[in-house]
Amino acid sequence: MSKQEKLLRKLLNGQFKNVKFSELKQLLLAFGFTLERVNGSHHIFVHKDISEIVNIQNVKGEAKPYQIKQIMQLIEKHDLKMED
Q: With helix as H, strand as E and coil as C, how does the chain read?
């Protein structure tokens, strides 16, 4: 099982705290998102199939739980799958 799959399993169980920012970035890339720009601490990701953007912030090496929750809702809403 890959690191992304392990992280996804953790997030699907609602565990949004203590998630490394770098791991969340890798998970977004695995779901087909691309980093469009960095504006200060805001990392803006886009996906070719959806209109919403994803904004994540690095706070002392960790991702913000509410932003992770938004990402999970977006993945579910659009039925996104991890790419190989």
A: CCHHHHHHHHHHCCCCCCCEHHHHHHHHHHCCEEEEEEECCEEEEEECCEEEEEEEEEECCEECHHHHHHHHHHHHHCCCCCCC
Query: Is the separation of the CB atoms in 47 and 32 below 8 Å?
Result: yes
- pLDDT digits 0-9 by tens, 1-14: 889 999 999 999 99
Residues whose CB falls within 8 Å of the CB of residue 78, separated by 6 or more in sequence, listed in order: 47, 49, 50
CA 63 to chain centre: 9
